[in-house]
Specification:
By secondary structure, the protein is α+β, with helices and mostly antiparallel strands. The chain has helices spanning about 40-60, 65-70, 140-165, 170-230, 235-265, 270-290, 295-320, 335-375, 385-395, 395-425, 430-465, 465-480, 480-515, 525-565, 575-580, 585-599; strands at about 15, 20, 100-110, 115-125, 130-135, 135-140, 320-325, 330-335.
Length: about 600
Amino acid sequence: MGCCGEDKRVHSSSVNGRWVPPDLESFEGPTKDRQCTDIIFLILFVVFCIFLIIVLGVAVGIGDPYRLLYGYDNYGNVCGRNNTKIKDVSDSGKDMTDKPYLTTDFEVECRSNADCTVLWKCIDKCSDDYRQLGYRCYKEKVTVGVFKKAEKFGQTFFEQLGADVKSCTNELIALCFISVGLAIVLIIVLRFCAAIIIWAVLIIVGIASIILTSFLWYNWHQRKKEADELSDDDSQKEGKMQTQKSWLAAAIISTIFMVIYLLLVFIMRKRIGLVAALYKEAGKAIGSMPLLLIQPVWTFIALGIVCTILVVGFFFLQTSGQPEVNESGYVNYRLNTFFQAMRWYHLFAIFWLTQFIISCQHVVIAGAVATWFFTRDKSKLGSPILTSTKNVVRYHLGSIALGSLIIAIIKLIRFIMKQVERQLKKQDNPARYVLMCCQCCLACFEKFLQFLNKNAYIEIAIYGYNFCTAAKEALRVLTSNALRVGAINSVGDFVLFVGKTGITIAVGFIAMEIIKNKEGLYYEWSPIVIACIFAFLVAHAFLAVYEMAIDTLFVCFCEDCERNDGISKPYFMSKGLMKFVENSKKVLGLMNEEKSKGG
């Protein structure tokens, strides 16, 4: 079925005024009776990939990345290779195997200011008065400035960096394991101490805002006092008055922020408690399904394979031009119109395929966590990750293709606008400021769509909806729980960011201690930076699973509240989450009575 295909509301019922499919009237967890969703977009995605493979296959057949690496002379001979003869070019087809370097002496034939030909040739090595940059040789005077810096950075720096990495291989491997261990410890800490950490962060920020506001008002008072003590004809009074106004403006802004912040914390205190409870539940879910933590590994492998293929394919695509001979008898390789258009197709493929792979991870995690939430007896959980993966592959690849397609289109539009803006900037055209504003708005819109997509994937994982229905239901859940969503996405995301930063800093300090006595390093900071980058990536990967688990549990919590009342229809949620529903006291009281009777 398509995105907005057959209306399933026929012969359906409702729960709390909300439409529910017939098979969900007695809901007991993620729907098992599913249908393939958004098949049209799955077919579109498959056709898109097949055409991409065909294009890359043709590009591999006629492209030659060696042209980019080694360059070619004026007669189309690629340096460092045995070349084939080009029709009507007598000096083509030469064996340049022993001449891998491309150079020019910049002896030019200029018939006019706009028509100059640079003579390039292949040589076996750079002469003494030339400088080497990759497989290019430039004259001494040319290497001054950019070329000289590039040469120093390109050869010396990377060679020395490679030597440092090789020398610290064992230390870097140990730091990688330390990063993984710290990420796991952080998840355990968040499970048992989430409330303490969240409130500690909020209180520290609140105290800091109060201290800053008091400091600003004190300094304003001091400047005002100094200005009042001066006579009206004093030359310094005007300057003192300006300084006083600056301190007053800063104090007012800080006061407004402080008041709003404290009011929001007070008003949302119960919802902040819900955030802490969701953190705890997410820790329990991951503890029950520890294999969730390796989902980013599969995602990373898939992204690595796809990106490698696309990058290599881009080099072949970029060098798939056919030789053209100009009036001077010199050869240039130019892309025809088709391959020029295919560069944009290739760029869009990068956006769509990467988003598709990441979205698959979201749906797998959402399905597993939702199964855990809606299973009353956790000992009978089964294999939720395997079941969720099967549902994704069997039923919902079309919906994932549609969701990732929307994000890919937005990214492509932003990229095009950025290129136009750069061209306008070169021309000093004021219209670029309009484009910058449009890009800012589009970036915000993209963030919103990514957030909506994630929640739509959760609805798909639970109910098996198509993408349009899932997005509509997700938007309804989000808008009806706007304050809760605000608390989770402000407080929750900030805490996760603090966690990622903390792991990165901790690994940095550990790396400094491990490597401080290491001898023979060109740059002591290089292995430390590499370790910190890896630590941040590891923390991000682990906490991305945690974040998706929290978002899924929140949607499940909202669905549980709407479907059940805790009395005639028992809640699926734990007692920790029941505290945040309207009839919590009554429900918990009945549960305690039943427990005492059973005892």
